[in-house]
Amino acid sequence: MSKRIRQLGGETVAILLTIIIFWIPFYFVIVNALKDKKESALLSLSWPSTTHLWENMKAVITARDYMLLRAFYNSTVLTVLSIVVLVMICAMAGYVMQRRTDRATPWLNFLVLSGLIIPPAIVPTIWVLNGLGLFKTMTGLVLVEVALGFPFGVLLYKGFMATIPREIDEAAVVDGCSGFKLFYKIILPLLQPVTATIVVTSSVGIFNDFTNPLYFFPGAKNATVQLTLYNFQSQFVTQWNLLFMNILLITLPPLVLFIFFNKKIVAGMTAGSVKG
């Protein structure tokens, strides 16, 4: 009985922490997004006396010649391209690193792990992109996002790959499959759980990225959704109701995506934990 009570107590604490950390700030954003300029300046949790949902939404969307719509387009293109490249490269790298073991394997593992530890350097990255002619281009920003997500993706794919028997590879080779055909026709379809995990988690991270587009893809026409927050705040004046409405609009797409694919994320994260 006492064990059950302790379990219920732990669950209660977890629920309360979730409410405090996530739902109260989210409620704060919602209520202030519905207020007018004067009432939202108080930054309170009280419900608005009169709601201004459509007025605030229209003002946010039309601000700076419909900048938010261009930002949604830029963020969507960036996310889709980055995810496609990231999944293909990480899947192939994870497959090779798990299947092949030689003297270079420990060094490859070390380099991948170091990618999770060593922080990215802004100025050298800009210097490299500028030298390649990719600075202020979508291609350069996609390469940056892929490079930052590569270590995490490779580790997930490598862990999951250990659960796929080597006999499948051997049977395919005996049947005359080439290396690429073996990977794309047989192995890659088996990686759907971990692929779903990488797609959802990386999509949310890339779509909500603020730092990389700010440094590597500057310009009003190149703005992504997070950079549109500058439209309603400055050094001296901040339109809090429009700022919170902007936050609400750019938060909903990744939030809905995360909620719908939550079970697949958990399945993909734990799929490679049995064998390693």
Number of domains: 1
From the N-terminal CA to the C-terminal CA, the straight-line distance is: 37 Å
CATH architecture: Orthogonal Bundle
Instruction: Name the CATH superfamily classification.
Output: MetI-like
Derived from helix and strand composition plus strand pairing, the structural class reads: mainly alpha
What are the secondary-structure elements, in order, as H or E? HHHHHHHHHHHH
Whole-number radius of gyration? 23 Å
CATH third-level topology = MetI-like fold
| Count of helix runs | 12
> Under the CATH scheme, which class?
Mainly Alpha
Question: Helix and strand layout, with pairings?
Answer:
Blueprint lengths: L1 H32 L3 H4 L12 H47 L5 H13 L4 H11 L5 H24 L4 H9 L4 H12 L1 H16 L3 H6 L23 H21 L1 H9 L6
Please describe what this structure looks like:
The structure is a single chain. The chain is mostly helical. It has a single domain, classed as Orthogonal Bundle (MetI-like fold). The chain is 74% helix and 0% strand. Helix 9 (192-207) packs antiparallel against helix 11 (240-260) and helix 9 packs across helix 12. The radius of gyration is 23 Å and the shape is globular. The relative contact order is 0.14.
Short descriptors:
single chain; 276 residues; mainly alpha; MetI-like fold; 12 helices; globular
What's a quick, concise take on this entry?
It is a multi-pass membrane protein. With 276 residues, the chain is mainly alpha-helical.
